[in-house]
From TrEMBL:
It comes from Clostridium chromiireducens. This is Permease. The lineage of its organism: Bacteria, Bacillati, Bacillota, Clostridia, Eubacteriales. It comes from the Bacteria. Keywords: Membrane, Transmembrane, Transmembrane helix. The chain crosses the membrane at residues 12-27, 39-60, 81-100, 145-168.
Length: 186
């Protein structure tokens, strides 16, 4: 029983959604069935993408453990790593949420936060797969301007985010060192 309650607490949003769906289904059977059908359609379209993305993550995690790849990743902190972030983000198609797990793996292996932010931002906003559709709807000129401005802004945001994160990490480290020194004095 304790394990069941813990599972419900850990999945509070899912539990609330299931309860809300059941309540809707009780009061209006058709709307409840519509919700269920929409949920199943979403699962049907999302699960294959998730499987492929997690396979990619597993491949990258195994590949990142090789010494040659790790040395190359840690050495390439300049333009090559920034270009990696842009190119990877441009070429990956699908939802962004597997990108967060990938980002964690990349940061654990020495990729700078700016490259991760570039990759995630590009992944979310600039997709080569959608380019023909965007040109058809918005026109070539608007698409070109949007891509250039978005690419530049992504780079600026990445630099700003990295600076802010470093600032707060330095503050935290100074605070932790001060705490450690005070503990030694006591």
């Amino acid at each position: 029983m304790n394990k069941f309650i813990k599972t419900i607490k850990n999945n509070l949003l899912l539990t609330a959604a299931v309860i809300a769906t059941l309540v809707i289904w009780i009061f209006d059977h058709n709307k409840g069935m519509d919700i269920l059908i929409n949920f199943l359609n979403t699962c049907e379209s999302t699960i294959p993408i998730l499987i492929l993305m997690f396979a990619l993550l597993a491949f990258i995690k195994v590949g990142m453990n090789s010494d040659a790849v790790q040395k190359g990743v840690q050495k390439n902190t300049g333009i090559k790593s920034i270009m990696f972030g842009y190119i990877f983000g441009l070429l990956v198609s699908g939802p962004i949420y597997p990108g967060f797990s990938l980002s964690k793996i990349l940061m654990e292996h020495g990729i700078k936060i700016r490259v991760v932010i570039i990759m995630l931002s590009t992944w979310a906003t600039l997709k080569v797969a959608l380019l023909p559709f965007e040109i058809k709807i918005l026109g070539l000129h608007v698409t070109i301007v949007r891509w250039i401005v978005t690419g530049i802004v992504i780079f600026l945001i990445a630099i700003l985010c990295e600076a802010v994160i470093k600032y707060f990490e330095n503050k935290k480290n100074k605070f932790m060192e001060k705490e450690r020194i005070e503990e030694i004095d006591i």
